[in-house]
Amino acid sequence: MKLLKHASACLLLSAGLVGQAISAECIAPANPGGGWDFTCRSIGKIMHDIGAVDKPIQVTNMAGGGGGLAYSHVVNERGSDEELIIAASSATATRLAQNAYAGMTADQVRFLGAIGADPGVIVVAKDSPFNSLNDLLDAVKADPTSVTFAGGSAAGGFDHLKVLMALGRVGFTEIAKVKYIGVDGGADAITQTIGGFTQAMTGDISEVVGFLKSGDVRVLAVLTDDRIPGEFNDIPTAKEQGIDVVAVNWRGLYVPKDISEDAYSKWSDALAKVGSSDEWATAMAANGLAPFNKVGPDFAGYLDGVIAEIQTLSKELGVIK
Description:
By secondary structure, this protein is an alpha/beta fold. The chain folds into two domains: 15-117 and 249-317, 3-Layer(aba) Sandwich (D-Maltodextrin-Binding Protein, domain 2), CATH 3.40.190; 119-241, Periplasmic binding protein-like II (D-Maltodextrin-Binding Protein, domain 2, 3-Layer(aba) Sandwich), CATH 3.40.190.10. It has eleven helices and ten strands. Strands 1, 2, 3, 4, 5, 6, 7, 8, 9 and 10 form a ten-stranded mixed sheet that branches. Helix 6 links the parallel strand 5 and strand 6. Helix 4 (90-97) crosses helix 11. The N and C termini lie far apart (67 Å).
């Protein structure tokens, strides 16, 4: 009995010490595994490892509503919690733009920034007649029925929108005429294109790496500011081809809206330090991410533009009213 009491006392003491040691929380709006969980666990750990924060950050998984449950929880219950950060990505922005979070809007939280991304790509089969992104977009402009795109998101999802953004940059506005097939994931989309059922695939670089290495596909453009460093550095950006579009699946964080400016600065500075660290560079390389460092006002401006464009395109497609 004394042994049990002693063990219980130790457990209580241990719990108390853990409670003292953990000063902050990162919510991953999904189950363990996947992008949001990776963001919380990797960024949170590196923040502590490099001394950007002074105590460990605990991770809480809060799945539901494609991130909507966590968003609602933060807005309604944790609006001034200065020790809370939440994982976000391009999916967060798309769902907010398309009113998928039950009327909640992006200005109900404050976005810290993004420090890595899975770059968007537009891909064709190895024997495709299209040799550049302009070749492909010109064909759509000339005859929208001649080109069908495949993507791993539903119609109106981010893969679909990547193509429409690129077409918008070259003056094509009849987006409802663009042929797009949404399938179950990037692998299915690339298979459709390799098999000749579609003329192009829109997705992320991580989805096509194997097919690219085997020589089954060619990437016409990567939708980033700069070329992907490393083995894919020979792939031109859309910007290099005169098409000013950046469409990436970024990995970042937001915080509750009503925290102090000092708290916001603390977290944004910590995120920026992670983004410039060797530890994060190693984590990105291990997980197929490319640099995408936009923190604070720089990111807020980028995000406002992306959300506005997604809303416009989604209305034209009939995804939202």
